[in-house]
Amino acid sequence: MSFIDNLQKKPKKTRVLIVWIASICIMIIIIIIWLFSFSRNLDAKKTGQNIEDMKIPSLFESIGKDFSLIKEKLETSFKSIKGQLNERETGQ
Length: 92
Hints:
Elements: H1 3-9, H2 12-46, H3 59-91
């Protein structure tokens, strides 16, 4: 049986208690996230930065930058490997 089936078979008082506990837990998580975000905003104001003025890259910009960095690293690695192979061929 699934969790929901077991829950439906419990008395109403128990189901209400479970709903309240779940709601409180979810609200605590939301409040923690909100407080973390709030403290981040305060830190930015203390340093003189305005949140609206901060340049935060979009998801696609971030992914694009990551791929360009990976491409550069791979090109550097391949050039290094190619150079080592050329050295071995000329050394033999």
